[in-house]
Amino acid sequence: MTDLKDTFDTAANEVKQLKSKPEDAEMLKIYALFKQSTVGDINTVRPGMLDFTGKAKWDAWEKEKGKSQEDAMNEYIKLVEELKKKYDK
């Protein structure tokens, strides 16, 4: 798990260094997988109806519910690699 955690941490830093910003849907997926990897299943109340960004993030994370932290880390790493190919040109 240490190697996976190190690779995950590297990917988390790399995604912040992309030359251009990914699309909103891709950013929500990154957010959700990061939260699932680091916190686990969602443990907060859904934000109020006027907090559109908060609700979108909450909904994205909620979709990952039940996924193991290890699986979420692997998916996160894979997605960051795809985003690097797409946005680091």
Name its key features.
89 residues; 4 helices; mainly alpha; flat; 0% strand; single chain
> Count of DSSP E strands?
0
Low-confidence stretches: none
- What share of residues is helical? 55-70%
Average predicted local confidence, pLDDT? 96
How far apart are the first and last residues' alpha carbons, in Å? 31 Å
Q: What oligomeric state is this?
A: single chain
Instruction: Give a short account of the largest sheet.
Output: none
State the order of secondary-structure elements, H for helix, E for strand: HHHH
Percent of residues in β-strands = under 5%
Q: Please identify the structural class as seen in this structure.
A: mainly alpha
Radius of gyration: 13 Å
User: What shape does the CA trace take?
Assistant: flat
Tally the helices.
Answer: 4
Description:
The chain is an all-alpha fold. It contains 4 helices and no strands. The protein has helices spanning 2-15, 24-38, 52-62, 69-87. The longest helix has 19 residues, at 69-87. The radius of gyration is 13 Å and the shape is flat.
Protein topology:
Elements lengths: L1 H14 L8 H15 L13 H11 L6 H19 L2
Helix pairs in contact: 1-4, 2-3, 2-4
Summary of the model, kept short:
This protein is an all-alpha fold and 89 residues long. It contains four helices and no strands. The longest helix is centred in the last third of the chain and has 19 residues, at 69-87.
